[in-house]
Design brief:
Helix content: 10-25%
Number of domains: 1
Number of helices: 2
Largest sheet: 7 strands, mixed
CATH topology: Nucleoside Triphosphate Pyrophosphohydrolase
Number of strands: 7
CATH architecture: Alpha-Beta Complex
Length: 146
């Protein structure tokens, strides 16, 4: 490569997502690509990522969550020329929370057991985030019993 060659820079949109488990079931939403995904979305100007996750979950399913730690970060290659940087957070929810209410942003809402997730049509990065959060919840439950 000579000095006159230009290097093309890349900029990815950022999407923050929440892994929410209620009574042993993870919340997922079906998008317009007919894929299951975690609830969440894009940051608004001046918004903290943790606040964005909680706001998006409230807008998408009517649940009030407490945003926990970052679980994972990865780049989702949707199709040629469309990549999104995904940051997933573990979220806490009161077990007595009512059933999720579907918004117009998605076609379906579902609650799935951990062992159902590998067979779902969804990006591998989401599956990894879900497995990691279930693992952390198990570790926390084990520590609480000790």
């Amino acid at each position: 490569m000579d000095d006159s060659a230009q290097v093309r820079g890349y900029a990815f949109p950022i999407s923050v997502k929440g892994v929410v488990v209620r009574n042993g079931l993870v919340l997922l939403l079906k998008n317009d690509r007919v894929e299951w995904e975690l609830p969440g979305g894009k940051l608004e100007l001046g918004e903290d990522p943790e606040r964005c996750v909680a706001r998006e979950i409230a807008e998408e399913v009517g649940w009030q969550v407490e945003t926990g730690p970052i679980v994972d970060a990865w780049v989702y290659h949707i199709f040629e020329g469309r990549d999104v940087f995904i940051v997933t957070y573990g979220c806490h929810l009161d077990a007595a929370t009512a059933s999720p209410v579907l918004s117009a942003e998605h076609s379906e809402v579902g609650l799935f057991a951990e062992d159902e997730v590998p067979g779902l049509n969804m990006p591998a990065g989401y599956k990894k985030s879900i497995a990691t959060w279930f693992g952390r919840l198990r570790e926390d439950a084990h520590r609480d019993r000790i």
